[in-house]
Write a structure and sequence with these properties.
With about 260 residues, this protein is of the alpha/beta class. It is about 40% helix and about 15% strand. The protein contains 12 helices and 10 strands. The protein has an 8-stranded parallel β-barrel with strand order 1-4-5-6-7-8-9-10, surrounded by 5 helices.
């Protein structure tokens, strides 16, 4: 039976082939951002001057539908940065999340903190795209990739001067980790069922090798949960829906930060 993740990946393969035909890698390399250095998310997450939160700009999702289609990206990401976000996550998948590469390019042009391209990256072409549109970090999802793909795509990201967030949901997926990964994120949401369980982060905390910085993703809505996860060694927290569902996501972020 095909899961939503299978459907997304199948659509992504078709999408990537269309984009390759439209804008070859040689053209991407000509974009100004391709040659620019980008800030380090690892350093930002460890900075005592930051919150450890990677705040996400997300208009919609397959499980929730429209989350917030009214706010402007400029206002939201700028408020996140001024409120102390360690990084910004920008969805670039259009069909399922309502995002775009234009969103990524706009965010990176406005911000000084690292920006993560959050998408279902399955092909090296998408890594070149991420660089060309200003991303400091790419997301590699274990559930979508083989061991060889994780290693190859992570190595390419490093060659282009970007960092890699490797996302896992289980110990089996954690076994796909590459030495070229910088950060391991435990997604509390099962991408095959979309069920959320914060205990995934707790269960995997001690299984993640100590040389990787680890973050927790999804389902975090309570400041106490952040404090709890810090006790399990988590240095970062990727949060989107909790802020984006509010009329003023930037204000929601600042209110949350005051409580941690």
């Amino acid at each position: 039976m095909m899961t939503i993740l299978d459907e997304i990946n199948a659509n992504k393969r078709l999408e990537v082939e269309r984009r390759k035909a439209s804008i070859p890698v040689d053209e991407l390399k000509k974009l100004p951002a391709y040659k620019k250095a980008v800030p380090s998310l690892k350093e930002s997450l460890l900075s005592v001057e930051k919150t450890g939160i990677i705040a996400e700009f997300k208009r919609m999702s397959p499980s929730k539908g429209i989350i917030n289609g009214k706010v402007k990206l400029d206002d939201v990401v700028s408020a996140y940065e001024s409120g102390g976000a360690s990084g910004i996550s920008v969805l670039t998948d259009n069909k399922y999340f309502g995002g775009s590469l234009d969103d990524l390019q706009r965010a990176t042009s406005l911000l000084n903190i690292p920006v993560l391209r959050k998408d279902f990256i399955i092909d090296g072409y998408q890594v070149h795209e991420a660089k060309a549109y200003g991303a400091a970090v790419i997301l590699l999802i274990a559930a979508s990739l083989s061991v060889e793909q994780v290693d190859r795509l992570a190595l390419l990201a490093h060659e282009l001067g970007m960092e890699v967030l490797f996302e896992v949901h289980s110990e089996k997926e954690l076994a796909k980790v590459s030495s070229n990964v910088d950060i391991i994120g435990v997604n509390n949401r099962d991408l095959k069922t979309f069920k959320v369980d914060i205990n995934q982060s707790v269960m995997l905390a001690e299984k993640i090798p100590a040389d990787f910085l680890k973050i927790s993703e999804s389902g975090i809505s309570n400041p106490e949960t952040v404090k709890f996860l810090k006790k399990h060694g988590y240095k970062g927290f990727l949060m989107g829906e909790n802020f984006m569902k509010e009329a003023d996501p930037g204000m929601a972020f600042c209110n949350f930060v005051e409580k941690i």
